[in-house]
Model the fold of this input.
Amino acid sequence: MLGNVINVTYGYLTKSNRIALNIPKSHINDAFVIAGGDNQTRSNIQYFIKQVRKCNRKLFRGDRSRIKNTAPRFIKGFQRYDKVLWDGVECFIFGRRSTGYFDIRKLDGTKLNSSVKYSYLSLIESANTFLIERRMALLPALKSGVSEP
Done:
């Protein structure tokens, strides 16, 4: 445990430092302020992570049903939560149909298309427990007198 240092901070300190830097309230900006940031160059890339189940463990179709859930895991080489490229946009498969059509969405729930044929999709990354979406963050301008390189 050499070199590990834990510093406690409080919300009122983070808020006052954030207000002094004239940046809006958000998780990414609070993390920047807590890390001691003031005039460092910031990356405009942020990662949005969502945890989903790894397997489909549902044995029956409904809540009180006795009908077996016989849906296959893979359809036309795709499964739920695969990261795919559709029309130049990275998205995730949230629903599948045995005919080869898929419901694709972004991680924030934005539905891009509810019925896309498998031939229009290309697999980027197979499904994981953690789905990671790369986004471009809108960074605030720093306070006057501090220039950004």
